[in-house]
Amino acid sequence: MIRKAEKKDLARIAEIHILQDFLLNLFFRIPCTLTTCLFLLSGITMQHYLLVIWSVIFGIGHIFVTNKNRVE
Question: Which pLDDT tens digits describe the chain residue by residue (72 residues)?
């Protein structure tokens, strides 16, 4: 039988693994996010809405390519 303390330890370990996975995914997406935000902010400030649309498409494509090229 698993004691309450062991259940808490297992829950904490699971939380740590989830956090590690989140941070790892975020680390690999930061270059994509920065570039996309730069294009998006430029399009919004200059009121070039076609640039805004293409920045969103670029961001989606860049994240897709980064995920495909990531080594596990």
Answer: 556 667 677 777 777 777 777 766 666 666 667 778 888 888 889 998 898 899 889 888 887 887 777 666
CA distance 44 to 72: 36
CB 35 within 8 A of CB 62: yes
Helix (H) or strand (E) holding 71: none
Listed in sequence order, the residues at least 6 apart from 59 whose beta carbon sits closer than 8 Å to its beta carbon are 32, 33, 35, 36, 39, 40
Residue 31 CA to its chain's centroid (Å): 10
